[in-house]
Design brief:
Largest sheet: 2 strands, antiparallel
Shape: globular
Radius of gyration: 20 Å
Helix content: 55-70%
Strand order of the largest sheet: 1-2
Structural class: mainly alpha
Strand content: under 5%
Mean pLDDT: 91
Distance between the termini: 17 Å
Order of helices and strands: HHHHEHHHEHHHHH
């Protein structure tokens, strides 16, 4: 085993220790965030999937360290004990502890539903893996690869979220949803605000959008949110590949395009005195899926370097 791997538990302990220090909002989040971000760089280049996992963990821990100083957890009981704080740090969504037996039972039942939901997605994931193995030219075309990766990311990401939260909820804890059927989004604004990666969406809504103008200056705040999201994803890709990616700036371009789409929608909604008539649901969904598919190569191109860079 490479010697650098030994640093991972040391860095994890450092993040937990710093978070314990920050639990009452005292101090700066940066030392904990830097320790978290260093974790994927300790993973060898020959281990792409562990690097991806630790890159996700690094972003999660960084957001949690920031949240400890700026408002704290949704449930203050997360910081009362070291083990509850560790659980809250490791789980990307917010966690709430039960107040009585009935709320615990509700969480258990909902957790079982999430476990069933995760199992129901397994055939679709298997079908995408079959395509990956039996379509040699799939990854030679950026558009085909982007569409494939888009669906694989949603199905795998939401299945992992459902599985992890469903297991935790069997102890009576309530865990927030991570996705809300993203393929059913009818517009860019609905997709980013209400359906895709609700963890990051909630973080940016609380700690960026509301702080730089919010509803008073929504256009400026939206620009800053999408620029910030692009930069965060650039850092994520750098952590995944262990350095400066070849396609640096692609993530920022992707979020700039989608931010522009949201801004156009906001402008149109504000200029009309009455709410504009909606397109039929099927048409709106199809148009939005097409928009995502066309722009997907900008998002997944940099991530593809994780599996080609050694």
């Amino acid at each position: 085993m490479p010697a650098s791997v030994v640093l991972i538990p040391v860095l994890a302990a450092a993040v937990l220790g710093w978070a314990w220090r920050l639990r009452h909002g005292h101090g700066a989040p940066w030392p904990g965030m830097l320790a978290a971000y260093a974790m994927p760089f300790a993973v060898p280049h020959a281990w792409p999937y562990p690097r991806l996992v630790f890159s996700v963990l690094a972003i999660t821990l960084s957001m949690k360290c920031w949240a400890l100083v700026h408002g704290g957890p949704a449930d203050p009981r997360a910081t009362t004990r070291l083990r509850s704080l560790a659980l809250w740090l490791l789980l990307p969504p917010e966690v709430r502890w039960p107040t009585d037996a009935s709320t615990a039972d509700i969480a258990v039942a909902r957790g079982r539903a999430r476990l069933r939901r995760a199992a129901a997605k397994a055939p679709a994931i298997a079908a995408l893996l079959w395509l990956h193995l039996h379509w040699p030219g799939l990854h030679d075309d950026a558009l085909h690869e982007g569409i494939w990766a888009l669906w694989m990311t949603w199905l795998c990401g939401s299945s992992i979220a459902d599985l992890g939260s469903g297991v935790v909820m069997q102890w009576g804890l309530a865990v927030d949803e991570s996705f809300d059927s993203p393929p059913l989004a009818r517009s860019p604004r609905e997709f980013w605000a209400k359906r895709w990666n609700l963890i990051v969406a909630g973080f940016f809504a609380r700690h960026v959008f509301a702080q730089v103008g919010g509803r008073r200056r929504p256009l400026r705040a939206t620009v800053i949110v999408f620029v910030g999201s692009g930069l965060m994803h650039e850092l994520f890709v750098a952590a995944c590949v262990g350095g400066v990616p070849q396609r640096v700036g692609w993530m920022t371009a992707f979020f700039a395009l989608h931010g522009a789409g949201v801004l156009v929608q906001m402008r149109l909604d504000r200029r009309r005195r009455r709410r504009p008539p909606r397109l039929p649901a099927a048409v709106a969904i199809a148009l939005h899926v097409a928009w995502l598919s066309v722009t997907a190569p900008l998002f997944f191109g940099p991530l593809g370097e994780l599996f080609t860079t050694r």
